[in-house]
Amino acid sequence: MKTMQRLFGALALCAAAAVASAADRLPVVASFSILGDLVAQVGGERVSVTTLVGPDQDAHVFQPRPSDARTVAGARLLVVNGLGFEGWLDRLAASSGFRGTQVVLSQGIKPRRMAHDHDDHAAHDHDHDHGGIDPHAWQDPRNVVLYVNNLVRALSQADPAGAAVYRRNGDHYVAQLLELDRWAAAQFAKVPQPRRKVITSHDAFGYLAQRYDIRFLAPQGVSTEAEPSARDVAALIRQIKAERISAVFVENMSNPRTLQLLGSEAGVKPGPRLYADALSVRSGPAGSYLEMMRYNVRTIVAALAKP
Ligand SMILES: [Zn+2]
């Protein structure tokens, strides 16, 4: 009986501690939904994470509202991708009076240069803020291992008492990333290399392409800000026909108009949406980064496998 009382006493103490710590969770703001998920995975119960660009939203054309400035002002840690992805962020952080630490998760990855195969692209006004660097580095799970290590370090500096927890959560998540990478490689290996050609509306899958040896063609370029020119679309239609490409996709945060047009004129039906720069809502097919990657890989492989 004494033991039971002691046990209940201990449980009550634990509950009190948990309630107290909820109030002093480390306030972290992530620039977009994929990074928000990484913070939740690594930070667990010790952090409270807010995401600026939410599920199914487009970070390329995001326009911060006054409430976003208040959110950023309250953060101890501001977690961003970098590589020019969040063009709106510096101004937002400066105007909000943010006094915390900003951490760039892509630090240390090998940036992918954009291959500008058509020089006439200057004709349509495409986003060059990122200096020819492809910002979508999270599309290679091995890069996300570096993201997680950067995040573990930043969280541990902001909250030293949690360092062991962050390290443990980080290691656990890295193991899942490596498992994802092995699985994805095995899935794509089932498709003969010459068949691995995919069309998406904007060029968000360069790192995935590089990692798993797939060719992605995108009429919209690396950002979603510019619509492709009629000439780009016509060139792509010729290519779809000449190379008999069956895998055509739109992304969750993009305007699907161009691609639907492409599909109808080239006689291919666009496949299901892929998740490029944003997760789905929690109950959707891409509610977390790991789910998003598995969903995309399965969807692409299924389209490529079609005769
Ligand atoms: Zn993008």
List the topology elements.
Blueprint: H1 2-23, E1 26-32, H2 33-43, E2 47-53, H3 66-73, E3 77-80, H4 89-96, E4 101-104, E5 112-113, E6 133-134, H5 141-158, H6 163-189, E7 197-200, H7 206-212, E8 215-217, H8 230-243, E9 247-249, H9 257-266, H10 289-305
Parallel strand pairs: 1-2, 1-3, 3-4, 7-8, 7-9
Antiparallel strand pairs: 5-6
Bound molecules: zinc ion.
The site of zinc ion has 6 residues, from loops.
Pfam families: ZnuA
GO molecular function, one term: metal ion binding
Main location: other
Strand coverage percent: 5-15%
CATH class of the largest domain: Alpha Beta
* Contiguous runs where pLDDT drops below 50 for at least 5 residues: 116-129
Alpha-carbon Rg, integer: 22 Å
H/E element string? HEHEHEHEEEHHEHEHEHH
What are the distinct ligands in this entry?
zinc ion
